[in-house]
């Protein structure tokens, strides 16, 4: 983590602590109280059970949403006919409230893990599809012509011409999709699962234990931040490397 | 005559948006280098595209005016798309005075260098007909001179029949090509002096 980011996070903690001291209310505990609760849950093992449940759902839901979204986006991006027909469908799903999809999935498939994951996939796949469709539609015709004239195989076109042009769009879909997925997963868990961060938040909401609510929310935010540092940022650097090389001259 | 044994290249009428742009014709490429000149918008690039599409048996390789090197790959990786033989790559890069740029990406090179690498890529694809679209456009005189000397080296080494379309045919005088001119609407190809 760069020094400036660390300093900024420490400043945020200080600001949080001072604000909490200032308001002196049960609904706004300070960082020390929240981190103490987090530590207790971690030591008891409860935290890891729920954290891993949510993490597993995020991975499954996002993975499926990403594959579905990329598939739909590529098809709509390449075919004007299919785009004309199915773009309104994607748009409708894009604007469908997450809560409606979650409730319908639970009603249709019961309070199951499949329903939970499917609800997120239906919610997120359109967003990824839109990103990828835009990327495919911006493919440069000169590279297509090069691929045709030099008789590149389908696999070569995919690896050398299409994926590199799509990388920034895939990457945006990854970053925005991942952060939105886990937020929806919490709602899914809150409404119909018996494990996960969302379930715990619901439980402690009923018990009015705000420090525990914040502790569990914070735990997953920390996990997501960790993913950002160890996976997303390095991937971003890799994807953008050639663009930076191009700016050297 | 060229090593590849190709003498005549044909094309049929070239239409674009229901308009006849270039009339059907034949061109004798046995002198190895043919330069086709013509004003802007007359149909020079359309002609090259037609020749490229309609003569698949000659494995024509079109080197575009915009170099179309893939910017996310290094020069060597770009060349490897058409020829994985590193020795050939090194030989041609050195012949084109580009020995030092193998590990660089196109964005790090000047337009002139990118054009010359694109020509190397075209040659490495082992065509029986090489088509160059405005290779000297937007280059300063020093770069044009280097380009001409590179093309001369390529012709003497490989002797692939090459058609160059350009709006400045005098750039290629030193190569003693056979000159043609594309004129009219729809455009017709005819032999010319320069």
Please describe what this structure looks like.
The complex is a heterodimer of chains A (about 250) and B (about 190). Chain A is an all-alpha fold. Chain A has helices at about 5-25, 30-45, 45-80, 80-95, 100-110, 115-135, 140-150, 155-190, 195-205, 210-245. The longest helix of chain A has about 40 residues, at about 155-190. Chain B has about 190 residues and is of the alpha/beta class. Chain B folds into 2 domains: about 1-60 and about 125-140 and about 155-195, P-loop containing nucleotide triphosphate hydrolases (Rossmann fold), CATH 3.40.50; about 70-125. Chain B has helices at about 45-55, 75-80, 85-95, 110-125, 140-160, and strands at about 10, 15, 20, 25-30, 35, 60-65, 130-135, 160-165, 180-185, 190. In chain B, the strands form 3 sheets. Chain B has a 6-stranded mixed β-sheet with strand order 6-7-8-5-9-10, with helices on both faces. Classes of the chains: A mainly alpha (about 250), B alpha/beta (about 190). The interface of A and B includes residues 146 and 246 of A.
